[in-house]
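User: Sequence in, structure out. Go.
Assistant: Echoing your sequence, followed by the structure tokens.
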Amino acid sequence: MDYTIEKGKITVLGSEFFDPQATLECGQLFRYKKTEDGYVVFALNHKAEVKKEENNVIIYTNSEYFFEKYFDLRRNYGIIVSELSDKSLIPAQAEYGKGIRILNQDPLETLFSFIISANNNIPRIKGILERIAEGLGEKADGFYAFPTAEKLASAGESFYRSVGAGYRAAYLDKTAKAIAGGFDLEKVYDMSTDEARKYLSGLTGVGPKVCDCILLFAYHKTDTFPVDTWIKKVFVDLFGYETTPKEMSEKLLEKFGNLSGYAQQYLFYYKRGQ
């Protein structure tokens, strides 16, 4: 992908493989706001305004190199789409979703986001995360940064209940205390996917689907295939029968291999858009 970086701005030349709406509204992140002419994205203590201008995507930010990595701009998604299409795996879905980019999000923020996402809907998830940031995060450039592990650990279960987390409040409290107490999220980058899955599953509130979402959307481990209600429908379309989420994930991983994470997003986006 061709793009330029200058002070305060990243210009992505051409939008074929970067559609802000598809990328931001495909269920991989929740801390963003839609505006009249684009989106505002919040990540840790960084902010970016993302707009389509003519055939380009413009990212206005004072954190240019943070968002270069965040939006995975160095990766050639044209090759990924071609592989999924040329092998006749999912040509229509890959073409439909080719503007999606898998983000490189902060592990702690992603962990909290997807624990909150369990049996929840996007407006409620966004609201809970915003109230957590407002209650515990530092003010930064007109928004609240995502809190540190120490702040999250000191809040207590009652705080998470007060922001609407419900039964997940206990999970968030225990997980925050584990991270602040030394559970090392950074070491996951160097683990195999199987090792990482076992490690992260030791945290309270991290089941198979939540774990795979964290591995894909924070650590970019694309040999994962999170299974939600939409992917269950996709599985029946592809294979003609229903089975357990675990067996679905295994079968889909067998089919798509190291391209599984990309395939998951294209299939999810295509099915939801029908």
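User: And one key feature?
Assistant: The longest strand covers residues 46-53.
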